[in-house]
Amino acid sequence: MTIKEIQEEIVEEFAFFTDWTERYEHIINLGKELAPIDEKHKTDDNIIKGCQSRVWLHANKTPDGKIAFTADSDAILTKGIIALMIRIFSNQSPEDIVHADTGFIDEIGLKEHLSPTRANGLVSMVKQIKFYALAMQSNPQKSPST
Question: Which pTM value belongs to this model?
Answer without folding.
Answer: 0.90
